[in-house]
């Protein structure tokens, strides 16, 4: 397996863990440290694969929208997350109704 594939797999794992963490503990509680603990890597490894906290939150919300994870989208909307507010109106309505 090449390095690019391994990096993509690690990034996908990080984002899946971040989404699960957002569902169980809340969107605003997702941190590099919390994700790193669950993935069993260092926070620096999270930063290497994802970047800044802003990038982590952006990618987390994009994944939530892609997966139609209504609780996370609703939390993002409540926190005025710009990416959650760009979700399709129908998805935003479903997220609000899910609260």
Strand element count: 0
Secondary-structure element sequence?
Answer: HHHHHH
Mean pLDDT across the residues is 93
Structure class: mainly alpha
- In terms of DSSP E residues, the strand content is under 5%
Helical residue percent?
A: over 70%
- Taking all Cα atoms into account, the compactness measure Rg is 14 Å
Residue stretches low in confidence (pLDDT < 50, at least 5 long) are none
**First and last CA, distance:** 42 Å
What's the total helix number? 6
Major sheet details: none
Q: How many discrete domains? A: 1
What gross morphology would you assign? elongated
Q: Main attributes?
A:
elongated; 99 residues; mainly alpha; 0% strand
Characterize the structure shown.
- The protein is mostly helical and 99 residues long.
- It has one domain.
- Helices cover 74% and strands 0% of the residues.
- The chain contains six helices and no strands.
- Helix 1 crosses helix 2 and helix 1 packs across helix 4.
- It is elongated.
- The chain starts with a helix and ends with a helix.
- The mean pLDDT is 93.
The gist of it:
By secondary structure, the chain is mainly alpha-helical. It is 74% helix and 0% strand.
Structural topology:
Elements: H1 3-25, H2 32-39, H3 43-50, H4 53-67, H5 70-78, H6 89-98
Helix pairs in contact: 1-2, 1-4, 2-3, 5-6
């Amino acid at each position: 397996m090449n390095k690019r594939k391994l990096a993509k797999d690690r990034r996908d794992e990080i984002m899946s863990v971040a989404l699960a963490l957002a569902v169980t503990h809340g969107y605003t509680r997702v941190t590099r440290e919390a994700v790193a603990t669950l993935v069993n890597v260092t926070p620096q490894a999270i930063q290497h694969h994802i970047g800044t906290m802003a990038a982590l939150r952006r990618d987390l919300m994009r994944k939530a929208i892609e997966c139609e994870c209504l609780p996370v989208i609703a939390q993002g909307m409540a926190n005025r997350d710009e990416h959650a507010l760009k979700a399709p109106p129908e998805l935003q309505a479903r997220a609000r109704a899910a609260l």
